Amino acid sequence: MRPVAILGIGQTKIDEHWDKSLKELAGEAAFRALEEAGLVRVDAVFVGNMLSPLIDGQNQLGALIADWVGLWGAEAVKIEAACGSGAAAFRAGLMAVASGEAETALVVGVEKMTDRAGREVTSALATAADADYEVEQGVSFVGLNALIMRRYMYEYGWKHADFAPFSINAHANAMHNPFARLHQPITVEQFEKANMVATPINLLDASPIGDGAAAVVLVPAERVSRPRVVVAASAAATDTIAIHSRRDPLFLSAAYQSARRAYAQAGLSPDAIDLFELHDAFSIMAVLSLEACGFAERGQGPRLGLEGEIGIHGRIPICTRGGLKARGHPVGATGVYQIVEVVQQLRGECGPTQVADARSGMTQSIGGSGATILTHILRRED
Fold first, then answer.
1. Catalytic residue check, 329
2. Average pLDDT estimate for 307-332
3. By the 8 A CB rule, do 71 and 41 touch?
4. 4-117+209-223 in CATH: which number?
5. Choice among 171, 329, 350, 376 that is catalytic
6. Which of 167, 206, 269, 301 maximizes the CB count within 10 A of its CB?
7. How many beta carbons lie within 10 A of that of residue 375, not counting itself?
8. Residue 112 · residue 330 · CB < 8 Å
9. How far is CA 342 from CA 55, 94, 216, 321, in A?
10. Among 83, 293, 319, 350, which one carries the catalytic annotation?
11. φ, ψ for residue 377 (rounded to 5)?
């Protein structure tokens, strides 16, 4: 397998884009990535998306977006892995280029979620859970995460307020990201007083949905002059789709496995990772990801936030552009947004939220409540 580099990136602001269709959002990000890459054609298009059949009434996104951006003749497919769809599409594009099957690949993550009522979106998101044993019982996705969080607090003795630093950090970083949806800093007091959604998860524990798209262009590394950003590792793993079937519902086994494989591929340890764009759809998921990936001991994840270790100048900066919590979470696009943001960090383009001397960055995207987890490591080569 040959080394692969990221030649171009593009993204749209996450918002309620009433005036833009699904394909227009995807096209906006795709054209920006292609323009930066200096390309007008690619061999393959991989689209990450979860909800288009349920929310937009549209399948065939590969052909739809290839047609919209004028890439007729290229191979084009949609990849679906729930909220991990964008990362799964990136992995598919990576494998196509690394194997030599394609010389150039465009990866687009796109989701348009705000045109439907909240209950419809909630029902659509629930399709990532076990239809027979979770959805059938009326448990929403936030409900499933609330059950995990409540058990975690009980097992390890943490209070709800101990999770506040994760949301506060995300909002503080999003203030400097023009593509983020939420540009409001928050305090511990606001976190504790936020409206409850599903005890103990409140509004400030949870990421907002939105409409958005992000894109990257992948090529063989030999085609890109240094300094360049290369893909040092790509790994994926699965766990049971239903939480109750897991040996330990408080441990993200698929995160542990995919991260371990990624570290081995990149020849790195957790200590060598300069920043981590994790999947903080809910604050409890940020904690569990940090523990599974070796940045904290089991049951001690909240301590990283409380001790300031997750900030831009901390031991392991996370959500440096706002994360899912404040950048927003257009589910099928999120994994590609994370890749774009790490590329920005490794290029030194992040202004006030720039991690000093960043040379390696990791992303992790979670499909469902931990059933599918993909981990990528990017490296800057000078």
1. yes
2. 98
3. yes
4. 3.40.47.10
5. 329
6. 167
7. 31
8. yes
9. 29, 16, 12, 9
10. 83
11. -125, 125
Residues sharing a CB contact under 8 Å with residue 143, sequence separation 6 or more, in sequence order: 198
Report yes or no: 50 and 86 within 8 Å, Cβ to Cβ.
no
How large a percentage of the chain has pLDDT more than 70? Answer: 100
Q: In the numeric block, which tokens belong to residue 178?
A: 């023009």
- Tell me what the mean pLDDT of segment 293-300 comes to: 98
- What contacts 267, CB < 8 A, 6 or more positions away? none
d(CA 178, CA 182) in angstroms, rounded, equals 10
Res. 138: pLDDT tops 90 = no
pLDDT confidence tier of residue 197, bands split at 50, 70 and 90: very high
For residues 230 and 177, give the distance between their C-alpha atoms in angstroms, rounded to a whole number: 23
Amino acid at 66: A
CA dihedral 106, 109, 114, 116 (to 10 degrees): 90
Q: Is 160 a catalytic residue?
A: no
Q: What is the pLDDT of residue 231?
A: 98
Task: Give the residues across from 5 on adjacent strands.
Answer: 219, 230
Tokens encoding 167: 């949301």
Domain assignments of the chain as residue spans, ordered by start: 4-117+209-223
Helical ranges in 201-242 per DSSP H: none
* 25 CB neighbour count, 10 Å cutoff: 25
**Contact present, 176 and 353 (Cβ < 8 Å):** yes
**Closest residue by Cα to residue 364 from 249, 236, 265:** 236
